[in-house]
Amino acid sequence: MELLEVFVSSLLIGLSIAAPVGPIGVLTIQRSLGQGPRAGLATGLGAAVADAVYGAIGAFGVTWLIQVLVAVRLPLALFGAGFLLWMAWKLVRAPVAVRTTRSETARSRWHYFATTFVLTLSNPATILSFVAIFGAMAGRSAMTAPGTMVLGVLLGSATWWLFLSTIVGRLRERFDARWQRRISLGSATVLATFAVWQLVSALW
Questions:
Q1: Could you give the CA distance from residue 133 to residue 164 in angstroms, rounded to a whole number?
Q2: pLDDT value at residue 129
Q3: Interatomic CA distance for residues 19 and 8, integer angstroms
Q4: CB–CB of 191/74 below 8 Å?
């Protein structure tokens, strides 16, 4: 497998992991509609960087860290579920977004990035996916190129979030305050559902 093939394969892996609708996708859509496409992109990029971190652990084969993460996956899952419930509660209580100053918006973007970064890291199933996928890729070729793999995953994931936040952000002006409130409540319901599902999966 040539270096370009490794990169393209990793890019597609990052894209395929990011694309399915989950908690991060719901948050990206909600924030793109409520605060604009930059807020949605910041939300998605937090997940993309977390994917790259887990991808690096899998690609470079940091065995001891993989074992630690597997060992603590129950506490991580419980933390992630609690974090999702907290974010759902914040959405329920939050007023409809209004336009803010540039400094406030910049702070909010960093907050959005950080919350989804932590949320994605709290899902240990992600690293198990990368370990399995990258292990299969390594088995097919002597050229594993872990750095190229990580870069491909990061860019693939980031490309999806850029696409999603841009498309949804363009629809923002079509939703008035009433619809934005409904979307926030719907997003909170979806996040709470994911939290309950994660709790059930972790405990049983």
A1: 25
A2: 74
A3: 16
A4: no
> Strand, helix or coil at 97?
coil
Burial of 16-34, coded b for 16+ CB within 10 Å and e otherwise, reads ebbbeebbbbbbbbbbbbb
The number of helix segments (H) and strand segments (E) in the chain equals 9, 0
Are 150 and 14 contacting, i.e. CB atoms less than 8 angstroms apart? Answer: no
Question: pTM for this one?
Answer: 0.81
- The token pair at 203 is 């405990």
> Could you tell me the two tokens for 75?
């506490």
- pLDDT value of residue 33: 86
- Domain segments of the chain as ranges: 3-77+96-176
Phi-psi region of 94 (alpha: psi -120 to 50; beta: other; left: phi over 0): beta
Q: What are phi and psi of 20, to 5 degrees?
A: -60, 140
Q: 139 pLDDT exceeds 70?
A: no
Contact by Cβ (8 Å): 47, 117: yes
Collect all residues with Cβ–Cβ distance below 8 Å to 198 and sequence separation of at least 6: 77, 80, 81, 84, 123
pLDDT in tens, 5-36: 888 888 998 888 888 778 899 999 988 988 88
